[in-house]
Amino acid sequence: MGEKAAGILSYMGAGSKLGAVVPASRLDVRPLPEMVSSGIAQLDSLCGGFPRGCLTEICGTGSSGRTSILLSALAHATEQGEVCALVDASDAFDPASAAAAGMEMNRLLWVRCGEKKSLQKDKSQKDRNKDKDFALTQKISHEKTGAHPNMPGMPARDFDLSTSWGIGQGQATEKKFGFRRWESRLSQLLKVTDLLLQSNGFGMIALDLGDIPVQSARRISLASWFRFRRAVENTPTVLLVLEQQPIAGSCSSLLVKVSGNRSQDAGKKRSTVSSQLSVIPPMLTDLAHAQLLDQLEITAELLCSRFERKLERKPVQSTRASFKSRAAWAG
Amino acid sequence: MFACIFIPDFPAQAIIRLEPELRRLAVVVLAGHAPLERVVAVNENARQMEVEPGTTKSQLEAWQNLVLRARSEAHENSAHAALLDCAQSFSPVVEDTAPDVVLLDLAGLESLLGPLPKIVHDLAQRVSEMGLEGNVAVAANPDAALLAARGFRGVTLIPQGEEGERLGDLHVDVLLESFSSDAQEATRWEEIFDRWGIRKLRSLAALPGVPVSERLGQQGIHLQKLARGAASRSLRGLEAQQVFAESVELEYPIVLLEPLAFLLNRMLEQICARLRARALAVQELHLNLELAPMQGNGCATSAKATRTFTRSLNLPIPVLDSKVFLKLLQLDLQAHPPGAPIVKVRLSANPARPRSLQSGLFQPVFPEPEKLELTLARIAGIVGEGRVGSVELLDTHREGAFVVRHFAPLEVSYLSNRVEPSSRKRKIMSLPENDSPCELEEKVAENAEENAREKMSAVIALRLFRPPLSAVVTVREAKPLRVQCAEREDVAGEIVWTAGPWRSSGDWAEQDGWSREEWDIAVSVETGLVLYRLVQDKIEGKWFIEGTYD
Does B477 touch chain A (CB under 8 A)? Predict the structure, then answer.
């Protein structure tokens, strides 16, 4: 039987029609998207800018420079006359910083997610219960440990707070990770993003999840990211997501990790600021303002790009680019 | 030439205009105090069922399938305004003769709007679009046009010189209804003509002038002239309307939003049709809802006075799409419910010139303004009002001083791009004169490169904590040494480096004066260094973590 099947397959493979079939991964039909400058020359040389009609992720920890990149990209887009939107899940946007970055403020739509102070509190509560973007009712996949397979100590992505976990455990987890605190904000973010993507005409839509804990951000279901990717496809919009760790999975076309320029010193990681001043004893040190905030070196690492056609395999080492920030008032 | 638009059974048609589903039914309009209500108007279907004006309400019980409606002044005012808009969309000289009659001067319009038959046809079409079924007549003088519109159904075009011939077939009653000041006088004239055996206008026109003058006076002569179609006068012009309004008085109070939306949809369609006829758009829309009196909870607090609930929509650009307005009103009413049953609805629109914009081929994409307004309204429904818009920084040193404005981005004008070369030229010319042109160009190029290099770099940004995190700070020698934040456990640690303080204060003469010291600090955490902005409120002496540099 096995020999017969192999024979049939080899016959079909030798046929003129099936022999010309090209694997989908090698199809070169789809043209490369138009790239938009990030406003930072070094970053543009690293990844060519941000692609239109695609989802781009910028991830990094606090003080890594990711917000500076975001504001720079938004400022550059608004300067070009494009209308942009910033969906601010953690309400952390600083208008003064944006103005210093050269943002055309009248072309930026700022949506502040947060506690709603309107009469529709009850309605939003109902909506929240109905919202299926969050995996509140998904089945538990790691029943024994309740832990994420790749992140020890973290809850799994597919879990159910209400059923599979005990009440005490659920409360403890809630206290530890603060899911409920961010749930309404993320729900608002998803709804607002849907509306913005449907309305068309935006040059760049940025989702700021920078202060959302990774555990909460990971609760956004992959279906939502797939929906966003499909919605932004074939549009001139750049969909930019700022986060602590990659969360969109295969839906993102470009993934850039941002960090300070780390250097190993006695087994401890130190940022560029520390490395520059390593001659000074590690004690409370006064700095001129310009020294602290100006020339902060930011390293951008290209973790994933779907536009590298020449590379058929995953590169062994990701490419990096470094650049220095400047304080707006330090010249 | 003059045209006249006449709407027969005006009270009935005014109601049908806002309730188009009644058009196929027999509608009877009643007026008067109960139980002495009488029929004042009927539509064609009711007339075919032999329902006559003057019939009492109790007599109407003999008929079946009649739709009874009370006469509505609001409906009639709206229909009359629509009729005037229709006329003014054709001619600048319009006379508001009666609620159901409008006269317009067509002199000089042929070169603009085409031949006279086309104008009349278009006029009839426009009246029909307004939801009214009217008669349109054109004659050489306004009174002949009025008689023809009242007497003949549909469209009538009377050539100059044939007025007497064409009007001769009309009954005398048409003349008396049109030109008698009151009912008693009309009855008197009717009796006179009846005694004389005059039934048609042709008979009245054929009477010799002197005997008529002797027996009926100047008024008789005037009536005879009208019957001959020979009267002549100029129109009393009407000023252009500033507000387009529609109003509806409800027989039963509306409680739910859905039936109100149906009503608003009809009114908006009418307003948009009127504005479209005048080549105008809407930039400001006002909704006035008269609410039913509040009933006290069984106690003496029965406030019987009706309350008015008003909402306004201010659009950044003029729009003429009834669906957009309806959705915006729905979203607005969902966010701000009236709170009581609605008994009267009034919708008024301030007209504006339609938006005209020359776009370039290579300009960036721009959201459709109508769609953007809807999106903004929907987003405001999700995140709350005042949490969506564009930021405007205030002219003050106070930290975090900004306002969120309605998002109304201006589309990049095609012309603005063309100004650039000349402005650049001016910049070059304004440089010192002692440099040679080549040196000037080099300097300009160097400056441009330097600016571009600086422009293509990142400015360190601040991420704010809203509200700021209160912190416990250990201070040594007036410098922060350690920071700890109770609200967030991760914001804590030894301060490795500090920069500052930067002192600022303001509004000292006001009640909300402020004074603060800012420190930029680097705190060592597991993942490296995190830069924070630490602030001490000098008035209260409290410490806050205002944000993190990122």
Answer: no
